[in-house]
Specification:
This protein folds into two domains: 88 residues, no CATH class; 224 residues, 4-Layer Sandwich (Deoxyribonuclease I, Chain A). Strand 1, helix 5 and strand 2 form a beta-alpha-beta unit. 31% of the residues lie in helices and 22% in strands.
Length: 333
């Protein structure tokens, strides 16, 4: 029994050291090292585990009180580091995108359903039923291959405007719209297999906004899809240049394959131009829908300051490893 307690104490102590080092190293997230970059993802998990380990250390028996104090201090430093990034996604800070109040019928309101369907997922009816239930004005679907394209084709009955860039490389994309698409372009920001959409969406009163739909590859290097070779956010940097020279209000949405953690300015190269709907409201973790313990926000909606938020929701599972996201926005006069 005594031996077992010693082993458990050693495990707790080693875990505390590992967590402390992970928290320290996570500061260097803007790096060419993929392993350091990945430490930016599980900040919520590192925060919770650090609290649990502090409790275990305080409970655990041991003669080396100095070591216990040292480890607890290290974990507290780690908690402070994670809190620096996570606090922006709690109600402890003010929102970046104002909440819509006193909405009038004539206001330019619209809704967006954003979903990464996961190409291998074959539960299309779940998504189609969800779309029928929410009735969004815009539907953006990613990882759309030929099979998914055929299944979603039924949406054309309710969505007179659409655009499609289909491939079998997990980066196909489709956009369905009830609002007029005045102009739409398919851009390949860094790779010919990774499309992004740039469209001008027009309301009945003639007002426009620019919608950028993006799905850059994860922060790692793939031989077939070297979008993030060197771990630089090249696609989002190029998007940022478009945002900087904008002529219209801008909406950016997609699976960024990255957690922003109040990192929007650096991620896109913009400064005080794009605002995250989550800031001041919550995490709304959209990935991984299949693993409760490993979840973080990967699907994002960013807007310029002409928009107010009416509703932000994470929707139910559709068989994908991503939860769909649903937003209602108002383009302010």
């Amino acid at each position: 029994m005594v031996k077992t307690k010693k082993i458990l104490t050693i495990i707790i102590q080693l875990s505390a050291v590992i967590l402390f080092l992970a928290s320290i190293l996570s500061i260097f997230r803007n790096t060419e090292n993929r392993y350091l970059k990945m430490l930016d993802f599980p900040r919520i998990q590192l925060f919770i585990l650090s609290i649990i380990l502090i409790i275990l250390l305080l409970i655990a028996e041991g003669k080396r009180k100095w070591l216990k104090k040292l480890l607890v201090s290290g974990l507290l430093i780690g908690i402070a580091i994670q809190s620096y990034f996570l606090i922006n996604y709690t109600t402890l800070v003010p929102v970046e995108v104002p909440t819509a109040k006193h909405v009038k019928g004539r206001d330019n309101q619209f809704s967006l359903l954003l979903t990464n369907v996961k190409m291998s997922n074959r539960k299309a009816p779940q998504l189609i039923e969800l779309i029928a239930s929410k009735k969004p004005d815009l539907v953006l679907a990613m990882e759309v291959d030929s099979w998914w394209h055929d299944e979603l084709n039924t949406l054309t009955n309710d969505y007179p405007f659409s655009h499609h860039a289909i491939n079998e490389e997990t980066y196909g994309m489709v956009l369905y719209s009830k609002l007029a698409l005045k102009k739409i372009e398919v851009n390949y920001l860094t790779n010919e297999k990774v499309p992004s959409f740039e469209s001008i969406i027009t309301f009945e009163d003639g007002k426009n906004f620019s919608f950028h739909a993006v799905h850059p590859v994860p922060p790692t290097h793939f031989q077939e899809l070297p979008d993030n070779a060197g771990e630089q956010e090249n696609a989002l940097k190029k998007l940022g240049k478009k945002v900087e020279g904008r002529e219209h209000p801008i909406l950016v949405a997609g699976d960024f394959n990255d957690v922003v953690w109040s990192y929007v300015d650096d991620l896109t190269g913009t400064k005080n131009s794009l605002y995250d709907l989550r800031v001041g409201r919550g995490f709304y973790n959209s990935f991984n829908a299949n693993n409760f313990l490993m979840r973080w926000p990967l699907d994002h909606v960013l807007v310029t300051d002409e928009f107010n938020l009416k509703k932000l929701e994470r929707l139910s599972k559709i068989g994908s490893d991503h939860f769909p996201m649903y937003v209602e926005l108002i383009l302010v006069d």
